[in-house]
Amino acid sequence: MAPAPRCAYCRERSAVPEYRPFCSKRCKMADLGRWLSGDYRIPGAPRADAPGESDDEADLTEPDHKPIR
Question: What is the pLDDT of residues 5-41, one digit of tens each?
């Protein structure tokens, strides 16, 4: 029989069905925090954004379209 899968975050405990592939809510949330802070990145070539504009500089507070009246 194959060994039980390990937690994807701490790799110390076995994953439990409720939080799979993690062992607990703590590990699940810690992993989400790494994604949200940008610690995890998908390798590849840089995106071709508009000149002078990056993800950090983009103004996300205003929509790109005008409301329909």
Answer: 899 999 998 999 999 999 999 999 999 999 999 888 8
- Per the omega criterion (within 30 degrees of 0), is the bond before 21 cis? yes
**pTM for the full predicted model:** 0.56
DSSP string computed for the chain: -PPPPBPTTTSSSB--TTTTTSSSHHHHHHHHHHHHHT-S---SPPP-PPTT--TTT---SS-SSPPP-
Neighbours of 6 (CB within 10 A): 15
Residue ranges of domains in the chain, CATH in brackets = 1-38 (3.30.50.10)
Adjacent-strand bridge partners of 14: 6
